[in-house]
Design a protein that fits this description.
Shape: globular
Helix content: over 70%
Strand content: under 5%
Number of helices: 13
Structural class: mainly alpha
Oligomer: single chain
Length: about 325
């Protein structure tokens, strides 16, 4: 009934709808528990899910990284991006948080220059600058006080860009098992080391809510894998921006949030610049490495494994 690209786009929309539901649960529980506690338990509950999936990996080799320092930096970055994103969701509106996180592809484009040897042409360079202007419009420095939530969202976008670029640099040489397991283990260990300072006793329904976060992140990632298997990356990647629609719906219905004019304007600028970069890479531009199109993982969900390595195993 539908062609492959349409199927992929629909699956991607479903994936990001599930991710948005995941973020709503994070926001609800984040009003009671620290992001450290949320991440510790969601990482713990993600281990069985990821382990079951990795059992099928028959790639010969061991778990010792080929690039241990790059792997360590990526693992720490993924722990920090989750920590910062979870905190931002608990402090800011969903729409504001998403818009700032959407700056990640812009930062990936910039970081690809020194780390991947990428040559970013004039058009993509302008798109990055325009997108960063959009982020400034949302932040409104001077007009509104910036809090830790805004800083956390910016850091989450930065750490997500770092882990994505490192994954592009070393992913072809590292085993998929190592690329998935080390970041999850790093998140669990780092949050566990800090948990004693923030722990609050949890009733069973809240513990179940943390399990829901882990399961939703895992299911959403599988839907995104299916989307990329069926469709071209240029069709799937822009679907992430559908999260701003879910932010408006969930924010209004569940949290009495109304998106103001500055956030709408800033989000529109960031989204348009991000889509332009994706299309520019898809059409060739001046890039051979297309870092944004090849960044397929939503890095701030502990159970959301790296999609590229799964696609590599399927190919």
């Amino acid at each position: 009934m539908f062609g492959p690209n349409t199927q992929g786009a629909l699956l991607a929309l479903l994936s990001f709808a599930i991710f948005s539901t995941h973020d709503v649960v994070v926001r609800v529980l984040g009003g009671t528990y620290s992001p450290i506690q949320l991440l510790f338990f969601t990482s713990l509950m993600s281990f069985p899910l990821v382990t079951i999936m990795l059992i099928s990996d028959k790639t010969p080799g061991h778990l010792r990284p080929v690039y241990p320092w790059w792997m360590a930096l990526r693992s720490v970055s993924m722990a920090l991006v989750s920590l910062c994103a979870f905190y931002a969701f608990s402090e800011l509106s969903l729409a504001q948080t998403y818009t700032i996180l959407f700056a990640s592809p812009l930062l990936i484009t910039l970081m690809a220059i020194p780390i991947l040897g990428e040559k970013v042409g004039f058009h993509r360079g302008i798109a990055v600058l325009v997108g960063l202007v959009g982020v400034i419009v949302v932040l409104r420095p001077g007009a509104e006080p910036m809090g830790l939530g805004h800083l956390a969202a910016l850091l989450a976008a930065l750490f997500n860009a770092i882990q994505s670029i490192i994954a592009r640099r070393i992913g072809a040489q590292e085993r998929s098992v190592a690329m998935m397991l080390y970041p999850l283990a790093a998140t669990f260990v780092m949050m566990g080391a800090m948990l004693a300072f923030t722990y609050k006793p949890m009733p069973l329904p809240d513990l179940a809510g943390m399990a829901v976060i882990a399961v939703l992140g895992f299911i959403a990632a599988f839907c995104l894998v299916a989307a990329y298997v069926r469709a071209e990356a240029a069709m799937v990647a822009p679907m992430q921006y559908s999260q701003i629609i879910w932010a408006a719906i969930f924010g209004y219905v569940l949290f009495d949030e109304v998106i103001d004019g500055a956030t709408i304007l800033g989000a529109s600028i960031v989204i348009l610049s991000g889509i332009y970069i994706v299309l520019r890479e898809a059409l060739g531009g001046q890039s051979n490495t297309t870092p944004v199109l090849r960044t397929r993982t939503r890095g701030f969900s502990p159970g959301a494994f790296r999609i590229s390595v799964i696609l590599r195993r399927k190919s």
